[in-house]
Design goal:
Order of helices and strands: HHHEEEHEHEHEHHHHEEEHEEH
Strand content: 15-25%
Number of strands: 11
Radius of gyration: 22 Å
Number of helices: 12
Structural class: alpha/beta
Oligomer: single chain
Largest sheet: 6 strands, mixed
Length: about 375
């Protein structure tokens, strides 16, 4: 039973965005009765302020719909000692554009107010969007990122980033908080020190509901380009059951502007520079195309295809063959190819998994572990990011 789905059922527009703002305000408030104390807040603060000491005083003010005077009301406003975090929440890309009668954008009003009113405070403005592929949100962010206070601005996504989105962005890497809200929730639920059994049942229900519901936000990113999203892939149950396992384990989902889903080597301290931190890619279309009407004819029908880096593949061939044998496949499932995007023709190795294969999440986890082992053989500790 998903509490988010229940309370947003038959509701549209602003109502749903207000719900998500309220949930974020609740989780970020260490005094609330969720039982997480400062855990969620600390995760966000660590990303917003590099190298900050998170031993906060007891008094933390977390407010929703906070008045900025003539600037309007911002969704979330957190004050901790001499630090301020202001968050504007968007769950629909189409709701990004919001201008005053004078033609001043919503983000400009908020950030101009913060820059003038909190001169003596260390402030951050965080723009929380569905995904880093949300085109209208990025346009609005660009309007304020061109100003002198750009170093105070961050863009955060509900869903994990595809590496290609960050590489091709017009904004520098440090403008992004790369650890998504979904990733933060997953880290809390998988925290070995806290353990699920110690989290209040109502909070577990909420976090589990968010973890299940947030990927749905990707389906509402407008198809400015046109590649398959989750709803498209679900049209073929035979291949979807395989896609679903890979996406669930990786906690990555399709984006309408990308032909593949990139699975990262790691996040946070475990990220690496090699291959831009991309462990492998999951193809969501059979071929690259330029017309939207070609989408459905290019949906995978018989196999799910995975792109592997050739140098990593060379390191794990024996282990990969054993893994394939467990799925009743053999070396015929492996072929040479190039990356599916017409403008990125890197040489890749392709693993094709037939729709009739019985694949479990444990199988996918084993596959990921084999590839990480290949990465580890190629990466010396000295070039790992700290």
């Amino acid at each position: 039973m998903n509490i988010i789905e229940i309370i947003t059922l038959n509701k549209h527009g602003d109502f749903q965005e207000v719900i998500f703002s309220s949930l974020m305000s609740y989780l970020l408030n260490p005094s609330a009765d969720h039982g997480l104390n400062q855990l969620f807040l600390n995760k966000l603060v660590n990303e917003a302020f590099a190298g900050v000491d998170v031993n906060w005083p007891e008094k933390v003010n977390a407010n929703s719909e906070y008045s900025l005077g003539n600037g309007g009301r911002i969704d979330l406003f957190v004050e901790i000692a001499k630090k301020v975090i202001a968050i504007e929440v968007k769950i629909w890309d189409q709701s990004a554009k919001n201008e005053s009668e004078a033609g001043i954008s919503q983000l400009e009003r908020y950030c101009d107010f913060l820059s003038k009113s909190y001169v003596s405070a260390d402030w951050r403005f965080i723009y929380l969007v569905p995904t880093f592929d949300s085109p209208k949100c990025l346009v609005e962010f660009g309007k304020v990122y061109s100003k002198d206070y750009r170093d105070n601005l961050k863009i955060l996504a509900w869903n994990p980033a595809n590496e290609e989105s960050l590489i091709d962005s017009k904004f520098p890497r440090n403008a992004f908080i790369e650890k998504s809200v979904l990733t933060m929730i997953s880290e809390i639920l998988e925290n070995k020190e806290i353990k699920r059994v110690n989290i209040p049942l109502n909070t577990l229900w909420l976090l589990d509901s968010l973890q299940e519901f947030i990927p749905n936000l990707l389906q509402n990113v407008p198809e400015t380009v046109k590649f398959p999203i989750t709803a498209d892939l679900e049209h073929n149950p035979a291949t979807w059951k395989l896609f679903d396992k890979f996406f669930t384990v990786a906690k990555r989902w399709p984006s309408p502007i990308l032909t593949t889903v990139g699975v990262p080597y790691g996040v946070g301290e475990n990220k690496v520079e090699k291959h831009k931190n991309s462990l492998y890619r999951i193809r969501t279309t059979k071929d690259y195309y330029t017309r939207k009407e070609d989408k459905f004819k290019n949906l995978p029908q018989d196999t799910v295809e995975l792109e592997l880096w050739p140098d990593v593949y060379d390191e794990i061939k024996p282990e990969l063959l054993v893994w394939l044998e467990k799925l009743n496949l053999d070396k015929r499932a492996i072929s040479e190819t190039k990356h599916i995007d017409s403008y990125k023709r890197e040489k890749m190795m392709l693993i094709s998994i037939n729709k009739n294969v019985a694949l479990s999440e444990n199988d996918v986890s084993d596959f990921n572990a084999i590839l990480r082992n290949g990465f580890d053989k190629l990466i010396s500790p000295s070039i790992k990011q700290s």
